[in-house]
Amino acid sequence: MTGKQKFLITLVVVSAAIGLVFSSSTWAKVEGDTIILGAAVSLTGKYSTNGKHTKNGYELAVKRINGKGGVKIGEKSYKFKIIYYDDESNSGRAAQLAERLIKQDGVKYMLGPYSSGLTKAMAPVTEENKIPMVEANGASRSLFTKGYKYLFAVLSAANQYLEVAIDLAVEKNGGKPVKIAMAFEQDAFSQDVRLGILDAAKRTGSKIIIDDKLPKELNDMAATLAKVKATKPDVLVVSGHSKGALTAIRQISEMKVDVPMLAMTHCDASKLAKQHGKKAEYALCAAQWHKSLSYKDKFFGTAATFDKDFNAEYGYTPPYQAAESAAALLVWKDAFERANSFDKEKVRDALAETDMQTFYGNIKFSPQGQNIAKPMVLFQVRCKGDTCENMVVAPTKWASSELVHPTPKWSER
Fold first, then answer.
1. Which fold has domain 32-156+293-364?
2. Based on the number of CB atoms within 10 Å of its own CB, is 17 exposed (0-12), middle (13-18) or buried (19 or more)?
3. What is the pLDDT of residues 66-97, one digit of tens each?
4. What would you measure as the largest C-alpha separation in the chain, in angstroms?
């Protein structure tokens, strides 16, 4: 082989390698008529069930957006495609995959994983690389206190979980301040919820008259309930995950504690109605979303339509994780079109200016990336005979049922 032939072969190989590098980078950002998003999702490990809900929500939204004309930028329409990796429900793995998506796959636009922990692991990576991330499953308040500029969350943060209960109590009190009693577990989530109550009390001029800690075992809140009997607050809020909610209902019924409004976290998950039957009636339970809400958009229509379409596609009723994940894609579409560009800084700025309604709820971001337009949903447990179900009663504007207030006294039940 001559020197000239060797040179030509080397030139071809080098040129091909350079071509692969540039085509890979282009492919990861926009390939032809396709916009590429990256996602690390828990397909295995302890979060695999909710990871599946997350992925299904993403995929249904991609299918719907692409089927309705895609994303229009300039005079051309583009389709979404997502590169997925399994984070194995491991925060270290999630951070590694964020690096891989950005550095190796060239992804410029990211979707969030499932859970606050994994979102916390990925956020520093996306922030360092100035990659916008729209996340749907990280509710921890601490995500919005780090000064991140590239993180945007469509769901309500943990500190918002029971704020709507205070607003509802004030509304039912003729707009006047109320007396608040609260009892919280000492875990990070419940303490975030507590901070939200403190903010709501200050905002409404309400007074906190009981501020108790639940015992570590979450098996006895009799001391708090004795104070409730003595001081007669307008609303009692409790956050102690499923066990705390069950304990609250059991002891409130045993001690015949009358309180006009009881609002809790995790009480839907603990299946209060099945565990305690009519003893749980009139309790309020915080949730992110429900199919009976009256929010609308032009892609899924109403929440009820999303529920129907998701069920037809995947064979089960969508939990809120699927709904909020689908909403994240609607946010991406809206931002790309308003930016009218693939430049990630312009797209980031468009995300920051988001102000829209989706079937999941209203979405508008604070400077910290927190959705400040979607209040939490409150269910009220309602019973007919031995059958109890959850009815959405707040926020009032979007509710499907009327709130029963005040809660009937035990002597009248």
1. Rossmann fold (3.40.50)
2. exposed
3. 999 999 999 999 999 999 999 999 999 999 99
4. 103
- Residue-wise pLDDT for 92-134, tens only, equals 999 999 999 999 999 999 999 999 999 999 999 999 999 999 9
Give the confidence band of 39 by pLDDT, cuts at 50, 70, 90.
very high
* Residue 273 confidence (pLDDT): 73
Decide if 135 contacts 117 (C-beta within 8 A): no
CATH code matching the domain that covers 160-287+376-412, chosen among 3.10.450.50, 3.40.50.2300, 1.50.10.100, 3.20.20.10: 3.40.50.2300
Burial of 97: CB neighbours in 10 Å, binned 0-12, 13-18, 19+: buried
- The tokens of 129 are what? 């690389």
pLDDT of residue 6: 45
**Which residue is it, tokens 């859970």?**
115
> Which residues, 6+ apart, have CB-to-CB distance to 156 below 8 Å?
139, 288, 371, 374, 375, 376
CB 285 within 8 A of CB 264: yes
Q: Is the peptide bond before 113 cis (omega within 30 degrees of 0)?
A: no
